[in-house]
Amino acid sequence: MAGADIGDLAKQGPFDGKARAQRRQAMLRRFETCGKPVIAAVNGYALGGGCELAMACHLRIASDAAKFGQPEVKLGIAPGYGGTQRLPRLVGKGKALWLILTGEMIDAREAHRIGLVNQVVPAAELLATAEQTLRGILAMGPLAVRLALEAVDQGLEMTLEEGLLLEANHFGLLAATEDMKEGLNGVSREAAPRFRGR
Q1: Which of 20, 72, 103, 173 stands 20 to 30 A from 132 (CA)?
Q2: Nearest 10 degrees: CA dihedral of 118, 119, 120, 121?
Q3: Residues designated catalytic
Q4: pLDDT per residue as tens digits for the range 32-64
Q5: Residue 172: helix, strand or coil by DSSP?
Q6: Sheet-wide strand order for 67-69
Q7: How confident is the model at residue 17 (pLDDT cuts 50, 70, 90)?
Q8: Which of the residue ranges 12-16, 89-93, 117-121, 157-161 would you say has the lowest mean pLDDT?
């Protein structure tokens, strides 16, 4: 995915541009806040809006053929769908600025090295690896997964003290669930827990 239609972008004015960016930002934000794990399986180009879509997912698995980049500056625009905000949070300010300001495209290995992707696999194994990863997460306590996602997402916007309080609150909430009892009892009886989301 290379992002927006360039011909369409060329016709937009400032108000249209802002509205377009806000619509796309809101759509991608829904991935991050849906409460369920979202995995991007990237097997090709993830440029501009495509890279921003991948970054809005909780995990990113790339084939060894994948390419990533934020080339908007080459078109006289800047990332508008969250790239200037998510990329520094994933790879750090310096690496993010390098990619955004140069418009450079990187391969999957470099994306993994800098922390943009979580795993690189051969193209033939990409979908099976993504499915296996997702199935592994789905075998965990669904309430625990949901609150862990929420704590990480919201905690990034808080001070450390506020984030620690959020984490403690979630930890306490989970202590009142049937899933916690099932998980802890499963360890003692050496049986796989059967979580029910309660």
Answers
A1: 173
A2: -150
A3: 52, 72
A4: 999 999 999 999 999 999 999 999 999 999 999
A5: helix
A6: 45-47, 67-69, 105-107
A7: confident
A8: 12-16
Nearest by Cα to 24 from 43, 41, 8: 8
Residue 192 CA to its chain's centroid (Å): 28
Name the amino acid, one letter, at 122. Answer: P
Instruction: With CA atoms as reference, report the closest residue to 87 among 46, 147, 130.
Output: 46
- Alpha helix ranges (H) inside 57-195: 83-91, 93-102, 108-114, 126-138, 142-155, 160-175, 178-188
pLDDT digits (tens, 9 = 90+) for 99-129: 999 999 999 999 999 999 999 999 999 999 9
Question: What distance in Å separates the CA atoms of residue 21 and residue 13, rounded to the nearest whole number?
Answer: 12
Helices then strands, each counted (H, E), the chain: 10, 6
For residues 119 and 112, is the Cβ–Cβ distance under 8 A?
A: yes
Residue in 128, 74, 126 with CA at minimum distance from that of residue 101: 74
Half-sphere exposure of residue 105, counting CA atoms within 13 Å on the CB side?
15
Question: Concatenated DSSP letters for 5-16?
Answer: -HHHHHT--HHH
- The CA distance from 53 to 40, in Å, is 8
Collect all residues with Cβ–Cβ distance below 8 Å to 141 and sequence separation of at least 6.
174, 177, 179, 180, 182, 183, 193, 195, 197
Q: Which two tokens stand for residue 20?
A: 């377009």
